[in-house]
TrEMBL record:
Belongs to the NDRG family. This is Pollen-specific protein SF21. PANTHER family: N-MYC DOWNSTREAM REGULATED. InterPro entries: AB_hydrolase_fold, NDRG. It comes from the Eukaryota. It comes from Vigna mungo.
Length: 367
C-alpha cells in the first residue's frame, strides 16, 4: 500500500478521458426461478436524506438486508452471489432481500446536493434503522461487504435487538490506520478534483479483487473485473467521495462487538488488503456464536470473485435458524426465522457445522 501511494501521482493521466455511461440490467435471478421473484425499487425518505432500496422477493418472508462496499451497489456487489443458482435458491427460499444502496450509489443516481451535509458512518447506520421502520421490519439478517460490512456491524452494535445475524465479507471494524487514512485521503482528493479517473478505478479494483482476476502480462482481465470497471464509470464521483469520507472517519467498534450475541459468519479472501482486519474482528466476536471462513486465492469481494465458496458455509449457518435450501424449487411458505423459533442449542458451534478456527476454503484456479 505504501509503495502504491508513492507512485499514485506519477500515474495520473494528463488528460482525463470522458466518462462512458453504460446501461446495466437490473439484477435478476437465474431463469428457472424468475417466477418466484418480485423486484421493486423504493426511494425512502429519512432524516438523513433519501436512500434507494431494491426489494427482491416475497415481502411476507423474513428480511435480509445488504449493504455494498465503496463505489458499488447491489448489482455490482451481489449479483455474482445471486447469479449462483444454489445460493439464489437458498436465499430467496428463506428471505426477502432488501438491497440498501449508500446515498447516491444506486443505478442512475444524480449527484447529491453539494450543500447537503456529509453523513458520518453513524448517520448511515441510523439511516438503516429508519429504512427498516419504513418497511415495518423489526429484526433482520444482515449481509455487507467491507465498508458496507462496517456500516451493518455498527448498526448491530447500536441496535442489537434488531439484528438476528451478521454475514460479513472482508469486514472493517477498527478505525483506519495511518496508512489507510492517508491512502483514502489521496483517493478522496482524486475523486473530488478529477472524478472517477483511471487512477481511482485502479485503486478500487485493487481493493476489490485479487491479482489473478485483475489480469497481468500472462492473464487477461476477467469478465467480472471488466463489468466492475464499467459500473464504476456510472458512479457519480462526488457521491462516492461522500461515502469515502464517512468510512475514513469511522471509529473503532471492537469493544461493541464483544456485546453482540447474534450469530455471525465472516468471509474473507486471503488476498484481501483487509485480511488482517477481518481476523481482528473475528477475534473480538463471541466465539460461541461466530465463525470465520478464509477463501484462498481471492480478494475482498468474495461475493463476486468466488461466490460458490460461500454456499456451503451459508447453508450450515442458516440451518442454525431452521432454514434450508429446497431440493427443488417451489413456492414456499414463510420461513421460520424469528427469535421465538430459535432454540438455544442452535447457537452452538456444532450446529453451525463450522469449527471455531479459520476454515481454509481451497479453490482451484485454472491458469
Amino acid at each position: 500500500m505504501e509503495y502504491e501511494l508513492l507512485h499514485i501521482h506519477d500515474s495520473i493521466e494528463s488528460e482525463m478521458a470522458d466518462l462512458v455511461s453504460v446501461d446495466m440490467e437490473a439484477i435478476s435471478p437465474p431463469p428457472e426461478i424468475n417466477e418466484l421473484v418480485f423486484l421493486q425499487e423504493h426511494v425512502v425518505r429519512t432524516r438523513y436524506g433519501c436512500v434507494s432500496v431494491a426489494v427482491y422477493g416475497d415481502q411476507d418472508k423474513p428480511a435480509l438486508i445488504t449493504y455494498p462496499d465503496l463505489a458499488l451497489n447491489y448489482v455490482s456487489c451481489f449479483q455474482g452471489l445471486l447469479f449462483c443458482p444454489e445460493a439464489c435458491s437458498l436465499l430467496l427460499h428463506n428471505f426477502c432481500i432488501y438491497h440498501i444502496s449508500p446515498p447516491g450509489h444506486e443505478l442512475g443516481a444524480a449527484t447529491i446536493d453539494p450543500d447537503g451535509p456529509i453523513l458520518s458512518a453513524d448517520d448511515l447506520a441510523d439511516q438503516i434503522a429508519e429504512v427498516l421502520n419504513y418497511f415495518g421490519q423489526s429484526a433482520v439478517m444482515c449481509m455487507g461487504v467491507t465498508a458496507g460490512a462496517y456500516i451493518l456491524a455498527l448498526f448491530a452494535v447500536k441496535y442489537r435487538h434488531r439484528v438476528l445475524g451478521l454475514i460479513l465479507v472482508s469486514p472493517l471494524c477498527k478505525a483506519p490506520s495511518w496508512t489507510e487514512w492517508l491512502y483514502n485521503k489521496v483517493m478522496s482528493n482524486l475523486l473530488y478534483f478529477y472524478g472517477m479517473c483511471g487512477v481511482v478505478k485502479e485503486i478500487l479494483l485493487n481493493r476489490y479483487f485479487s491479482k489473478e482476476v485483475r489480469g497481468s502480462d500472462y492473464l487477461p482481465v476477467s469478465d467480472i473485473v471488466q463489468a466492475c470497471q464499467r459500473s464504476l464509470d456510472e458512479r457519480q464521483s462526488l457521491n462516492v467521495w461522500r461515502f469515502l469520507e464517512a468510512i475514513n472517519g469511522r471509529h473503532d467498534i471492537s469493544e461493541g462487538l464483544r456485546k453482540l450475541h447474534c450469530r455471525s459468519l465472516i468471509f474473507v479472501g486471503d488476498m484481501s488488503p483487509f485480511h488482517s482486519e477481518a481476523l481482528h474482528m473475528a477475534s473480538k466476536l463471541d466465539r460461541r456464536f461466530s465463525a470465520l471462513v478464509e477463501v484462498q486465492a481471492c480478494g475482498s469481494m468474495v461475493t463476486e470473485e468466488q461466490p460458490h465458496a460461500m454456499l456451503t458455509p451459508l447453508e450450515y449457518f442458516l440451518m442454525g435458524y431452521g432454514l434450508y435450501r429446497p431440493s427443488k424449487l417451489s413456492v414456499s411458505p414463510r420461513s421460520p426465522l424469528s427469535p421465538t423459533c430459535i432454540s438455544p442449542e442452535l447457537y452452538s458451534p456444532e450446529s453451525m457445522g463450522l469449527k471455531l478456527k479459520p476454515i481454509k476454503t481451497r479453490i482451484s484456479v485454472e491458469m
